[in-house]
Amino acid sequence: MLTRLTEQEYEQYAPWAYDLAMTAEHSSYPTYRDGIKTREDFMQRAQRAFTDETEEVLLYLHEGKVRGWIQWYTIPEECYAGTVSFLVEDHAQEAVAEFAAHVAQRMPGATLDIGMSADNRQAACALEDCGFTLLEASVNHTMFLSGHTLPAVPEAVTLVTTADEAEFRNLHDDPTMYWNADRILADAGHWRSYLYWHAGRAVGVLCCMLDDGWPEIFGIEFENDAFRPEAYCALMAACLRDAQADGCPHMTYFEEEEQALPLLAELGFTQVGRYLAYRKELKEE
């Protein structure tokens, strides 16, 4: 059974939900186990559900006892929904099924995304059993930039300018992703993108979203999808140096490419955990 959290219940259940978020086998994404986000951040994010009509926190009850906390949001104009937290102590399969049915009733035909920690096997298995598709499996990394010595940036790396749009589009060319080339270029003030040049052409690109002093690398791509270690390290060094110069305290990156993991460790990143992204296209039950 799902019930909407009331302001009176908030004080009782929010601390309990945070404890679940900080426990590997119950955690979801966005994670609060990264050494960056705090307990106060969790509490403030939860309270947004009382003032934002596109969000709500649901309590999951089993046999009359609260067993889970689910905070989710909608983007109505895009028929999209996603979770802020999906924290279930047990009976995860029933919680997933009821939540998916709840969203489908509210937003028939919506796309629903849920981020999960790979350590949370009960929830990951429940999502798969309920027909969710695994879109991404990556390793979440954090670097704390203050006082960190970073490698020099080679001349082969340049920032993307309007003159480089064709090269940028050639490398960042997946039309199915939300942050495609058109959206990034149209919102250039919130992005910093870099090209790696070889023999007169761009063969690698890194896109970094700038978000209120909390930059996040969106992705690194290469010509013909051929991984280039030297280009990877050079692009990453350029991005990290600029973030450090801006006074940003940390950098977050989710890496899917296994051969890149040793390079990230050499640069000074630490692994937070493995991230799983699940999606389901909903129909009203």
Summarize this entry quickly.
The protein has 285 residues and is α+β, with helices and mostly antiparallel strands. It is built from eight helices and 13 strands.
Structure, described:
The structure is a single chain. With about 280 residues, this protein is of the alpha+beta class. About 30% of the residues lie in helices and about 35% in strands. Strands 1, 2, 3, 4, 5, 6, 7, 8, 9, 10, 11, 12 and 13 form a 13-stranded mixed sheet that branches. The chain is elongated. The model has no long low-confidence stretch (mean pLDDT about 95).
Strand runs, count: 13
The rounded Rg comes to: 20 Å
List the total number of helices: 8
The backbone outline, from C-alpha atoms, is elongated
- β content, as a range? 25-35%
Query: Percentage of helical residues?
Result: 25-40%
What structural class should be given to the helix and strand makeup?
Answer: alpha+beta
Order of helices and strands: EHEHEEEHEHEEHHEEEHEHE
Runs in which pLDDT lies below 50 for 5 or more consecutive residues are none
Largest β sheet strand count, sense and barrel closure = 13 strands, mixed
Mean pLDDT: 95
Ends distance: 16 Å
